[in-house]
Design goal:
- The complex is a heterodimer.
- Chain A is built from 16 helices and 2 strands.
- Chain A is mostly helical.
- Chain A has a domain of about 50 residues.
- In chain A, α3 packs antiparallel against α8.
- Chain A starts with 11 loop residues before the first helix and ends with a helix.
- By secondary structure, chain B is mainly β.
- In chain B, β1 and β2 form a beta hairpin.
- The relative contact order of chain B is 0.10.
- About 5% of the residues of chain B have low confidence.
- At the A-B interface, α1, α2, α3, α8 and α12 of A face α3 of B.
- Chain B: GO terms for molecular function: protein phosphatase regulator activity.
- Chain B: Belongs to the phosphatase 2A regulatory subunit B family.
- Chain B: This is Serine/threonine-protein phosphatase 2A 55 kDa regulatory subunit B.
- Chain B: Keywords: Repeat, WD repeat.
């Protein structure tokens, strides 16, 4: 059947993930930041998987995105309170999660991010796969990832499904090696995960044709031919914010202008193209 | 047999409709009790089968639209035919199911098999007569309500005025007139102008059973909004807002996900409504917004103080066995990893609104009696359900050694889930859908 989601290959990745979640559930001695990182990684992995589906489930994606937001907010609060007084800052946060772990754990919480990392290294070797792979994602990466994930809901991307299905093959082999995300690769994955909702509007908007002005429909068809080096940057005004609410086509950068300017550009390009053709054919 | 995706009794309970993942609707009819078959009371046999929705391919967006039936809702019967609404992700259809048990015989110009007769063979005129024939049940689509939903439709609900109905998707609710297919009114729109701010999703919606201007919709945040259509054309502003304050001691990473409401149902008397989230069922009084009046934990068993004796009043000590409930809470990460945490369970009321029922994992379904606080756990499986045998209540325990008829939490099968249940409007007959099997249970009358 056309349009069905890609099926992930069963690989070490899945075994690792299953091992992680059961470790999360069964182990009461996992420190809280580690658990949080585990959950975060799972969320991002899920979002990445959904990205590969042609039509991701909006409900689930929102739920996961909210969980990611929640964790991010907490991490931000912790890092904000860090310079002032660490222990009281973290203790209430862990207290609110008291249902998850025994009270003794909160005493073990390290007092800083750096110490968290060193504490991770102090874990028993049985949890090596976890601690080796769980590195702290910076707050900026997180917020940019979440906002880009949801911002893409608003975009009507004029891309066919294969574009979204372009394998993040680079990412997949990573998982068997390290079950988490490295810091630099986090940026990649998070930004890659931004496309998780990328096809939402194109898949869901029944008002696709009604909302667009007629010119916009032909915008990309015409200008794609003229997307050449001859386009003069000064001729193109920046994309107006009002267009964002009308679900504009996300096309080549040269096309992000109003239709009137576009026609002028087309005409300019057309004459230049003729000129080139004359030169080529004439000689 | 395909996976059953919805189950619904009609207003009298004589008909039971099921929809499945393949877009088919199967309607069962209750057998009439006759002298020759006194035990046939409560039996349902297949009445009609038809293909309601076909898979569609949206060429514009290069997407396939699933034919799975998300919801079926019956219309009240007004003539000899039956009408129901069935919906998939994008399109709602009104179907007419009618019986034909007579056919005309004795045409002048046609033979019995339909061939035209030679004119010279027609030597006399006769009046065609109606002769009985084998009952034939026909289903024909009468209306198609399409192209009104950008997102996936999760609920439909017929209004008490019997002229309108509402349909809800993830972000919008539309109001339709049953006669008009090319126009619908949008009454709720929670899509933010900036999609970055999207945090809320509509999970279920229902119209009040008596007040045709009132409806409720639930969200993934565990809140319910009651709206009055008389107040404004666009009901983005709610009239009542139902939310239970979160218990800070039970907070976890997954608190938000498990508080997402999967089903909301008004009681028959219109005074209460019931919501189902991942771990509990809550009954709300429409007059009280700050917390539910009753909460039932799906995974908590009450331990009776004395063995149950038939027909003796049951004294149930309020000693609850929270271990199983806590066990499931501790399993949340695994359930999140295998996506089980996103399962949407439904719930239903019995006719007098005295008992509520909901499904769970391992093909268990639970009933809660509101007055006595007695709960029963039953299993819908071939092994435990011989026809006419009495179901034994099941119990889940946490310890290794288990008593007879008990099952340990470790052996729960999370792939066997009962998401859809329905209760006969006036009798104690329940329909339970376990993946691709439909079970019908009735109260044993001696």
């Amino acid at each position: 059947m056309l349009g069905r989601g890609l099926k992930r290959k069963l690989s070490d990745y899945e075994e690792n993930m299953a091992g992680l979640s059961s470790a999360f559930d069964s182990s009461r001695s996992l420190p809280y930041p580690l658990k949080r990182q585990l959950v975060l990684n799972m969320c991002l992995t899920k979002l990445q998987t959904y990205k590969m589906l042609v039509e991701p489930n909006l409900h689930r994606s929102v739920l996961i995105a909210n969980t990611v937001r929640q964790i991010q907010e907490e991490m931000r609060q912790e890092s904000n309170q860090q310079p002032v007084n660490i222990c009281p800052g973290i203790a209430p946060a862990s207290h609110s999660y008291a249902g998850m772990e025994s009270p003794g754990i909160s005493l073990q919480l390290p007092s800083g991010i750096n110490q968290q990392e060193s504490h991770c290294c102090d874990l028993r070797s049985a949890e090596d796969p976890i601690e080796n792979s769980l590195l702290i994602v910076s707050d900026d990466d997180m917020s940019s990832a979440i906002s880009s994930i949801l911002k893409d809901l608003d975009f009507v991307e004029d891309i066919s499904p294969p574009t979204c299905l372009v394998p993040t093959g680079d990412d997949q082999p990573k998982f068997p090696e390290n079950t988490g995300l490295k810091l630099e690769d986090d940026r990649q994955d998070l930004k890659g995960a931004e496309c998780v909702f990328g096809s939402f509007e194109i898949s869901n908007s029944t008002s696709y044709l009604k909302d667009l002005a007629i010119d916009d429909i032909f915008e990309d068809i015409d200008t794609s031919m003229y997307d050449s080096d001859f386009c003069c940057p000064p001729l193109m005004p920046p994309r107006s914010p009002s267009l964002a609410t009308e679900e504009p086509l996300k096309t080549f950068p040269s096309c992000n202008s109003s239709s009137a300017n576009n026609i002028q550009i087309c005409r300019t390009d057309l004459s230049e193209l003729d000129h080139i053709m004359e030169i080529l054919v004439g000689s | 047999a395909d996976i059953i995706s919805t189950v619904e009794f009609n207003y009298t309970g004589d008909l039971l409709a099921t929809g499945d993942k393949g877009g088919r609707v199967v309607i069962f009819q209750k057998e009439q009790e006759t002298k020759s078959r006194p035990l046939s009371r409560g039996e349902y046999n297949v009445y009609s089968t038809f293909q309601s929705h076909e898979p569609e391919f949206d060429y514009l967006k290069s997407l396939e639209i699933e034919e799975k039936i998300n919801k079926i809702r019956w219309l009240p019967q007004q003539n000899a035919a039956h009408f129901l609404l069935s919906t998939n992700d994008k399109t709602i259809k009104l179907w007419k199911i009618s019986e034909r048990d007579k056919r005309a015989e004795g045409y002048n110009l046609k033979d019995e098999d339909g061939r035209l007769r030679e004119p010279f063979r027609v030597t006399e005129l006769r009046v065609p007569t109606l002769k009985p024939m084998d009952l034939m049940v026909e289903a024909s689509p009468r209306r198609t309500f399409a192209n009104a939903h950008t997102y996936h439709i999760n609920s439909i609900s017929v209004n008490s005025d019997y002229a309108t109905y509402l349909s809800a998707d993830d972000l919008r609710i539309n109001l339709w007139h049953l006669e008009v297919t090319n126009r619908s009114f949008n009454i709720v729109d929670i899509k933010p102008a900036n999609m970055e701010e999207l945090t809320e999703v509509i999970t279920a919606a229902e119209v009040h059973p008596h007040q045709c201007n009132t409806f409720v919709y639930s969200s993934r945040k565990g809140t319910i909004r009651l709206c009055d259509m008389r107040s404004s054309a666009l009901c983005d502003q709610h009239s009542k807002f139902f939310e239970e304050p979160e218990d800070p001691s039970s907070r976890s990473f997954f608190s938000e996900i498990i508080s997402s409401i999967s089903d909301v149902k008004f009681s028959h008397n219109g005074r209460y409504m019931m919501t189902r989230d991942y771990l509990s069922v809550k009954v709300w009084d429409l007059n009280m917004e700050n917390r539910p009046v009753e909460t039932y934990q799906v995974w908590r068993w009450r331990v009776p103080s004395c063995p149950l004796r038939p027909r003796a009043p049951v004294r149930v000590q309020r000693v609850s066995c929270p271990q199983v409930h806590e066990y499931l809470r501790s399993k949340l990460c695994s359930l999140y990893e295998n996506d089980c945490i996103f399962d949407k369970f439904e719930c239903c009321w019995n006719g007098p609104d005295s008992t509520i029922m909901t499904g769970s994992y391992n093909n268990f379904f639970r009933t809660f009696e509101r007055n006595t606080h007695r709960d029963t756990t039953l299993e819908a499986s071939r092994e435990s359900s011989k026809p006419r045998a009495i179901l034994k209540p099941r119990k889940v325990c946490t310890t290794g050694k288990r008593k007879k008829d008990e099952i340990t939490v470790d052996s729960l099968d999370f792939n066997k889930k009962i998401l859809h249940t329905a209760w006969h409007p006036s009798e104690n007959i329940i329909a339970v859908a376990a993946t691709n099997n439909l079970y019908l249970f009735q109260e044993k009358i001696n």
